Amino acid sequence: MKNKQQGSTLLTSMIMLVVLTLLVVFSIRSGNTNLMISGNAQSQGEASMATQMAIEQVIEQVIDADDISLISAQSVQVPTGAATYTVAVKAMTTCVVEVPVLNSSLDSENDNDRACFAGQDDDKAIKADGTLTTKPSECKTQQWEIEAGVTDGLTGAKVEHVQGVTIRVPSTVTCL
Fold first, then answer.
1. First to last CA, the chain
2. Which residues of 84-103 are buried (b: 16+ CB within 10 A; e: fewer)?
């Protein structure tokens, strides 16, 4: 009986060694997969923040612009420490809505409201019940959409953002 069992210990040891090797290989691969997933999430987050920073830069241009519709498409370079993202910002062509600012909603003590008292726009707004409102002021509130996106060639991260901006404009500026 001893002759039949001489190789069984070696065979059992080899099987255990193969099983342990497979467990180690699986652990390493799953660890690498988790590392790649977290790296992808970080790249996506960086690209998203770069896009948001580019939109904030365009909002500064919108605030200073005389005619919003003339703000053209542009590429904005946004450094994030390790990488610099080139964010493509589309032209400001989408005015979503405009609402006249009523004289009754203005504050004569507020410097931003004083320009709206300068004259009167002859167009009257119609209420939901069909009656005319009081005369609108010389200002309108318009809502515009800013669209921006970035595609990182190195990591493959792709992000697109659309953000609305509400600004007060003179009544002569029309919503296209």
1. 97
2. ebebbbbebebbeebebbeb
Give domain status of residue 44, yes or no: yes
Task: For residue 71, give the nearest of 136, 165, 135, 8 by alpha carbon.
Answer: 165
pTM, to two decimals: 0.69
Number of domains within the chain = 1
- Strand partners for 144: 95, 165
Residue 175 in domain:
no
Q: What share of the chain is helix, strand, coil (3-state, %, to 5)?
A: 40, 30, 30
Give the separation between CA 70 and CA 106, rounded to whole angstroms.
28
Tell whether 145 is covered by a domain. Answer: yes
Reported as a single tens digit per residue, the pLDDT across 8-49 is 888 888 999 999 999 999 888 888 888 888 878 888 889 999
Range of the domain at 93: 3-170
Pairing of strands 74-79, 94-102: unpaired
**What are the backbone dihedrals phi and psi of residue 42, each rounded to the nearest 5 degrees, phi first?**
-65, -45
In this structure, the strands spanning 158-170 and 84-89 are unpaired
DSSP state for residue 113 in the 8-state scheme: H
Nearest alpha carbon to residue 82 among 33, 150, 152, 158 = 152
